[in-house]
## 1
Amino acid sequence: MTILHHGTTAARAIAIEQHGPDPSFREPGSTGLPTAEGLSAVIADGRSCGTGMPEIAARNKDMLFPDEGGPAIVEFEVPGWIMDRIYADPIAAALARGGEIRFEAESGLDELIAEWRHLRKRVILL
């Protein structure tokens, strides 16, 4: 199992914890922008990725959306066979080498959503 962290707001973290990633999620007020199409996280060992640490991402989201309960981290465990899907996709594997674990339709997202209710997960309020 690999433990991952996703930085966001408390309201979004609770929704993800309860229902899993939502690839159709769209930032409030961003009707002209594309949907999330997936979920990004980092391995929970203190490393960062190109977009920074999940704690920084959470605090940035909180500044943009102050009515969503404050910054938070969704921590979740991913089985090795799902992580293997990430490492088998050339683009996702390149992102992973840079620290970002990116779940999309071609690289583990469907499997993650299907297994979500069985995974250990928690919300960490910052």
## 2
Amino acid sequence: MLDNLIEDRDFAKIMQKNIESLIILLFEKDQNFGILCKIEQITFEPELPSEISAEFRPMTLFFLAGYTFDTASIVGDKLVFEAGFGSDNFGSIVSVPLLSIMQIIVDETPLLINLSSYKKQSEKVVKKVDDGGVENSMASFLSNPENSKFFKK
């Protein structure tokens, strides 16, 4: 039952709207916050050097404060902000899909936990049935005298 709910598209839409609404409220209140998110769904522009990106775990915490907080905004269905990484403070624009945010944290306390695990369905490939192939197969079967034992008399 729970799996059906958390994998449901409508549930995901509600979670996305809640994530967006809470982030907007935090922006309006000028409240710094952290996001715990799935790193594989995040994009960096420019791409981070491999020695920096190799340090990320599958679930990574970003803390939005100072310059990073000031540059943050919601663009479409993503949270976008600029951040510096590594000892050289390598600058990159980070784009985080809202549904990849698993927690929103203030003062080490989760304000929101995203339980949604909905994945957009890729376009289904519809295979055409070759009716001619079935007919040809039947004709081959019927033309073989050895197969006559399979027919009702």
## 3
Amino acid sequence: MRRRTPIAGLALALFAGMTATLAATTASAAPAAAPVTAAAPALVAAAPDISVTNVQAHLTQLNTIATNNGGTRRAGSAGYTASVSYVKGKLQAAGYTVTEQTCTTCTYPGNNLIAEWPQGPAVARAAGVKS
């Protein structure tokens, strides 16, 4: 078994070397491509500024919802319904358009939330949306 590893490594190195040589030969024989002009500017989004305190507050609220509903937020339970309501309210308060989609193929009945930023994702990133 030990003997196969060096042989496989050598074969892989030879394959990589041959591929690189072939690619270089093909590239030098090919006619020069036209220069790329007027490329669209790339949108680079900064990392969002997420408050750990706010995240902890949301987790505490979700834990309270579970505690008030028999210790669970399992799909199809009252805890799940209350959790969906909580998240939906927070998203709407933040300016998202939120719709509920009934999951018809789920093991337990429940709704999925779909949140859309009205101005589209580029505006949300540029505006520096914070949680």
